[in-house]
Amino acid sequence: MESTQSAGGITGNVLFYVSPEPLNREQHAKLALVHNDKPYGFAKTGTAVPLTVTEFAPAALSFPVIFAGEDRVPLAVMGLNNGENLFVNADGSIDPGVYIPAYIRRYPFVLANDESQDRLIVCIDKGSSLLSDTGDTALFDDKGEPTEYTQNCIKFCDDFEAERRRTDSFVQLLKDNDLFELKSAIFTPTDEAGQPGQPQTVAEYYGVSEEKLNALPVEKLKELQANGALAQIYAHLVSLVGWDRLIAVAMVRQAAAAGVVVN
């Protein structure tokens, strides 16, 4: 993958990236990574973050994995309100044990479309606070070649793109088998006496229908099992229990903001 391209024809709007530009040895010769043990402040507004299919199982331990939009894009739900991420703290840290999606881990690097040459090129978010001319780990060495750190980041982006294509194939498989249905996340509040109130719809999203899945022919289920798709489907279904955790985290955050102690 090329890492030193001229600007021009770069397209696409990517979550978290403010000023993406092609990585270039002339323009970015002095640029370096700023070491920060709490580097995730850029993701604090990421309510739903894209996931690749191989991330479903680890992500399911932390938050709901859903599908959204006409393309049924897999997302990790990390907040209940727009511009809110309940797992990224104000200081840029993430609580121990919470899975960090690869989409977040690759930042401030990203692949972008170069329409003029019909290919993907490596870009960086020049507006990122993680990059500076006075940073700690250089992007290029004295000869103008990508450092080992930069090479590793480029490989990570290439691997992510390969996983993204694999994810597209997985989603298409679910579409071909008509396994999607519209689902709702429901929250039932309780009053001061502990009595249940009126159920409230927290979110609507697309997910795999267990009824449709169970109705598939045995041969098709064996095929899904053999190609690994069935395990990912079950990871998605198990993750939906995470709506309860997400709601609980939101309630604790709201209570803390209001100065209320929650037992």
Round the Cα radius of gyration to an integer and report it.
21 Å
What shape does the CA trace take?
Answer: flat
Beta-strand fraction estimate = 15-25%
Average pLDDT for all residues = 90
Estimated helix fraction: 25-40%
Termini, distance in Å?
52 Å
* Unreliable spans: 1-12
Number of domains: 1
One letter per element, helices H and strands E, the order comes to EEEEHEEHEEEEHEEHHHH
Kindly report the spatial arrangement of strands forming the biggest sheet: 1-7-8-2
Helix tally equals 7
Largest sheet: 4 strands, antiparallel
Strand count: 12
Secondary structure category: alpha+beta
Description:
- With 263 residues, the protein is an alpha+beta fold.
- The chain has one domain (10-177, 209-257).
- It has seven helices and twelve strands.
- The chain has a four-stranded antiparallel β-sheet. A three-stranded antiparallel β-sheet has the order 9-3-10, with no helix packed on it.
- Strand 5 (65-68) and strand 6 form a beta hairpin.
- The protein starts with 9 loop residues before the first strand and ends in a 6-residue tail after the last helix.
Brief characterization of the structure:
Pfam families: SapC. This protein is of the alpha+beta class and 263 residues long.
